[in-house]
Amino acid sequence: MPSFTRLRQWLSGLSFRTGIIVLLICVPFYLLSFVQMLLPLSVGMKSVLWVVLFGLAKTFQYAGLTIIGAEGVRRLRKWLKRLFNNHC
Questions:
Q1: Tens digit of pLDDT for each residue in 36-86?
Q2: Residue 76 CA to chain centroid, in angstroms?
Q3: What pLDDT is stored for residue 41 in this prediction?
Q4: Up-side HSE of residue 11: CA atoms within 13 Å toward CB?
Q5: pLDDT value at residue 5
Q6: Which domain range does residue 55 map to?
Q7: Are 11 and 67 in contact (CB under 8 A)?
Q8: Exposure of 64 by Cβ count < 10 A (0-12 exposed, 13-18 middle, 19+ buried)?
Q9: Does residue 11 sit in helix, strand or coil?
Q10: Is 14 helix (H, G, I), strand (E, B) or coil?
Q11: What is d(CA 42, CA 53) in angstroms, rounded to the nearest whole number?
Q12: What is the pTM of this model?
């Protein structure tokens, strides 16, 4: 368990910008995890691809959230709120 604590501490020490970039990386993996179902592959191969791609998406999502932390989430929400209020 100490290695998870060290990893979490290291991730939370990264910048807010890095956290946003890592969060954005999860989007293509989410898309690929579902789009690959359209490929002419066996069900077994599609299942393996889904698990790997969806797992990577979740990994990047949680790593990004760990990097930006609770204050970063509040900051991101405020920014998104301003963005959508100005465009509506």
A1: 999 999 999 999 999 999 999 999 999 998 888 878 888 888 888 888 887
A2: 14
A3: 93
A4: 22
A5: 84
A6: 2-87
A7: yes
A8: buried
A9: helix
A10: coil
A11: 16
A12: 0.72
Residue 43 structure tokens: 């069900």
Nearest residue to 28 via CA among 59, 53, 7: 53
Structure tokens at 76: 């991101």
Secondary structure class of 15 (helix, strand, coil): coil
Residues 22, 68: Cα–Cα separation, whole Å: 10
Q: How many domains does the chain have?
A: 1
d(CA 11, CA 61): 12
C-beta separation of 11 from 59 below 8 A: no
Tokens at 62, concatenated: 């949680």
Q: Measure the CA–CA gap between 54 and 28, rounded to whole angstroms.
A: 10
Tell me the CA end-to-end span of the chain in Å, nearest whole number.
47
